[in-house]
Amino acid sequence: MNFTESIIEILKKSKGNNEIVSLFTELNEPDNFWAGFVGRISDEFIMLNGVCSRGRYEWFRINKISDIYKIEFGGKYQEKLEKLYLLQNQNHKPVTKLSEDLISDLLIFAKENKLIATIQIRDSGYDDIIGYIEDLTDETVKIKLLDEFGDEDGFSVFNKNDITLLACDNDMTLKLLSEN
């Protein structure tokens, strides 16, 4: 079994046990990780239902499984988050569209719920596009862009298959917009 297969097996087991995992994806920043419940898994992507360090709902995030270089689960930190999450009666609204295409499902969910989406294109390492999903086809996404002040700032159209990271209802984006 190779590393990716091992990661997928751990993610599936954690999803079945409804336990929080911590995913590490940034080699240059080893203290940075994403914590949450495993929402969905495909051969290429994971949808994580994010939980912040205070045990509260944070976001939905889709990452490439191949970007994960370390996973932690079953530790005191993850148990603390689970306990805080339950004590505060937190929950993630279910993503109701369930196809094999996690990215399309989350884009549709973001559009239907008018959530801000943060999108990385072609492994750029940046939040390339931030805004509301305006339109979506099998190949094309149209976003109503938001600037750093949270004001609408035109549109962006791009190929859906170029998405390498997608987050919506992202606490960090809301914080960024509120600070400016």
What is the count of helical runs? 4
Basic shape? globular
- What is the helix fraction of residues, given as a range? 25-40%
- How large a portion of the residues is in β-strands, by DSSP E? 35-45%
Structural class: alpha+beta
The tally of beta strands, per DSSP, is: 10
Average pLDDT for all residues: 89
How can the largest sheet be summarized?
A: 10 strands, antiparallel
- Spell the H/E element sequence: HEEEEEHHEEEEEH
As laid out across the biggest beta sheet, the strand order is 5-1-2-3-4-10-6-7-8-9
Uncertain stretches of 5 or more adjacent residues: none
- Cα distance, first to last residue? 48 Å
| Overall radius of gyration | 16 Å
Give a structural overview.
The chain has helices spanning 3-17, 76-87, 102-112, 171-179; strands at 20-24, 34-41, 45-51, 57-64, 70-73, 116-121, 129-136, 140-146, 152-159, 163-168. It is α+β, with helices and mostly antiparallel strands and 180 residues long. The N and C termini lie far apart (48 Å).
